[in-house]
Amino acid sequence: MRAVAQRVSSASVTTEVDGSRAMSGHIGDGLVVYLGVGRDDAEADADYLADKIANLRIFMDSEERMNLSLLDLGYGALVVSQFTLYADARKGRRPSYSDAAGNEEARRLYERFCAALSAAGVPVETGRFREVMRIECVNEGPITILLDSKKAF
Description:
Layout: E1 2-17, E2 20-27, E3 30-36, H1 43-55, E4 59-60, E5 66-68, H2 70-73, E6 76-81, H3 103-119, E7 124-126, E8 133-148
Parallel strand pairs: 3-6, 6-7
Antiparallel strand pairs: 1-2, 1-3, 1-8, 4-5
């Protein structure tokens, strides 16, 4: 499982529904998490990344050092499914997504990740799985962290 976590001061996601845009999630200070599920991922990957992201110390303390986490500050996470994190563009000009999980498994593990992050105490907002979304965010830092559960052990 792969995640790109971006520190933000605000973020929202909208989806087109019946010809008009509808907001499906928004946060103030926190993280936008783009989450990709690989075909070899399991529950342990979702749980590992949820714990890692909840406790990732990338927010400033009173001395302007990155020493605080989402949990320390009570900040939220906007989690957006992003199968393109498994794009393989080494050959040709059209990326292959063969390493991404199928729709049902990806949805199951995406939901598991969101539930684990919420159970850890992080307020979670989401996009809409398998929909075209528009994400607006104000990056802070900018701080962007790439996490891969397969590189954890």
